[in-house]
Write a structure and sequence with these properties.
Layout (H helix, E strand, L loop, with lengths): L2 H10 L18 H10 L3 E14 L2 H11 L1 H8 L3 H16 L8 E13 L1
Antiparallel strand pairs: 1-2
Helix pairs in contact: 1-5, 3-5
């Protein structure tokens, strides 16, 4: 779900994606890596569960508004550009999302989430 707008904007700006292992929305941490962070921070009985989260929006435009609210690194990247470039980049996100629209224009995407817990 997050890679869709990130790749749309990076493609529009003609920038390559960040190298593997770079912290950020596209880093794709593993359950083992998340567990090691908690264990390294002093947590015991660490458990990490991988789940799929399904989300939907009434339109591609609503998806883009959601992304503007939750993907701070993308917003920060675009803030470095003039307003017309930002607008065109956000339009690229909307059009990328539109490819996943059903007949009613609704967008449904899934996202992997890692749920981690431990005892302090």
């Amino acid at each position: 779900m997050i890679s869709l707008p990130m790749m749309a904007v990076l493609g529009f700006l003609q920038q390559p994606p960040p190298p593997p292992g770079t912290p950020g929305p596209l880093s794709r941490p593993t359950p083992e890596a998340i567990g090691a962070i908690l264990a390294g921070g002093g947590f015991s009985n660490v458990e990490v569960e991988e789940i799929q989260v399904e989300m939907d929006w009434s339109s591609a435009e609503e998806f883009t508004m959601f992304i503007k609210d939750i993907v701070a690194p993308l917003v920060a990247l675009l803030e470095q550009h003039p307003p017309d470039v930002r607008e065109t980049a956000w339009n690229a996100v909307t059009e990328a999302a539109r490819q996943y629209a059903d007949d009613d224009g609704r967008i449904n995407l899934s996202n992997k989430a890692l749920l981690a817990s431990g005892v302090a």
